[in-house]
Design goal:
- The chain is mainly α.
- The longest helix is centred in the first third of the chain and has 28 residues.
- It is elongated, with a radius of gyration of 19 Å.
- The chain starts with a helix and ends in an 11-residue tail after the last helix.
C-alpha cells in the first residue's frame, strides 16, 4: 500500500468513525437526563443507569472526535509537509 492509498483508506475510516459518533450522539440525546444528574456528579447521590450511559457516551464521543481530527490531519499530509518528520517522538528531524 502506498502512502497515498493509506491516506485514502484513513479518510474512509474517519468517515466511518464520524457515522459512529453521530449514532452515539443520537443515543445520548435519546436517553433522558436524570433530574438528579447534578447531585450525582457532585457525589451526593449514587449514579443511575441513565447518567452512567450519558456520561460514558459523551466521553467516548469526545475521544472519537479527537481520533477523527488526527486521522483527517494525517490523511492530508504530503511528503513535503512532513519533511521526513512525523512530529512524534522517534521521528526523524
Amino acid at each position: 500500500m502506498t502512502p497515498e492509498e493509506a491516506q485514502a483508506e484513513i479518510r474512509a475510516i474517519a468517515e466511518e468513525l464520524l457515522a459512529v459518533e453521530d449514532r452515539l450522539r443520537r443515543v445520548w440525546e435519546a436517553v433522558p437526563r436524570s433530574p438528579d444528574e447534578d447531585a450525582m456528579f457532585e457525589g451526593r447521590k449514587a449514579w443511575d443507569l441513565a447518567t452512567e450511559i450519558r456520561t460514558v457516551v459523551e466521553c467516548v464521543r469526545e475521544e472519537v472526535r479527537r481520533v477523527v481530527e488526527s486521522l483527517e490531519r494525517v490523511s492530508r499530509v504530503t511528503e513535503e509537509d512532513s519533511g521526513g518528520s512525523t512530529g512524534h517522538p522517534g521521528g526523524e528531524g
